Amino acid sequence: MKKLIIVLLSLVFLFLLYLNFLHENKSNVDNNNNTSQVENSSNSDNQKDKNDHTNKEDDGKEEASTSENNVSSEPLIFNEDVIQDKYDANIQNNEPLTVDVVLPTYYSDAFMNDLKEAFNNTTIGFNRIDIDVNSGQLAQLNINDSADVVLLSALQIQDYNEEVLPSHDLPNVLRMYMSLLEANKTAVILSEPNAHAHVNLQNVLEDDQAFMRENDYFYVDNSRIELDDMYDYNQNVLTREAEKEVAKNIRDFFLQ
Questions:
Q1: Which of 95, 107, 197, 236 could be cross-linked to 90 through a Cys-Cys bond (beta carbons 3.0 to 4.6 Å apart)?
Q2: What is the pTM of this model?
């Protein structure tokens, strides 16, 4: 009897071991499946992140490329024959028309970008030449040898700022104009806006332009710019809005 009990207990023990074995195998299979699913999910997320990052990089490159492609290289048509002739000669040599822009310090650094955007063409380029003198002090210009055209400020605002407007010396500015012609440069006077909204400055602008018009000087008219704010007295520069209008008027003088 005792032997029978021992045998039965042994069988029960073996049966329990068997059940435990089955349970452990099932758990391992489930764990492996879960681990595989987590790994697959993680790999999928990582791949998605990589794809998103790649797509963003591609989008950025595409936007930059689109921005560059928006700049035209189509031939330009100028209002003045002498400028057109220089432009055509440069284009035949695969060179842009080069314009030196002689500016006082109250034109901000961003103004040159305004000019480039206004023309939006690879066949014309602009260089800034800084000056810090009034119209009576203007004595020489350090122009690049490669310049085809020189755009020279008439310095009306400079004279106002230095409180020498009653002595505004347009003839001296025009002497610089003539010296540029003698150096085989095409000269254009940049007449300025009434940035201070002052009647005396407006009178000087109108008198200058009447004289230049009657004597066939090339000049850009900015006297008709009317904005609420044209001068930033904190920074001592023209406002961005005023500079953009000046850039548009320069473009309108040059191009048809």
A1: 95
A2: 0.73
Strands (E), the chain: 97-103, 124-130, 149-153, 186-190, 219-220, 231-232, 237-238
Q: Shortest CA distance to 101 belongs to which of 158, 132, 140, 147?
A: 147
H-run or E-run covering 8: helix 2-69
Task: Give the pLDDT of residue 6.
Answer: 57
Cα dist. 214→127, 152, 189, 218 in Å? 29, 19, 14, 11
Is residue 118 over pLDDT 90? yes
Using CA atoms, how far apart are residues 230 and 80, in angstroms rounded to an integer?
29
d(CA 158, CA 165): 8
Distance between CA 134 and CA 147 in Å, rounded? 23
Helix or strand or coil: residue 128? strand
Look at strands 219-220 and 186-190 and give their pairing. parallel
Instruction: Find out whether 255 and 84 touch, Cβ atoms under 8 Å.
Output: no
- Exposed/middle/buried for residue 255 (C-beta within 10 Å: 0-12, 13-18, 19+): middle
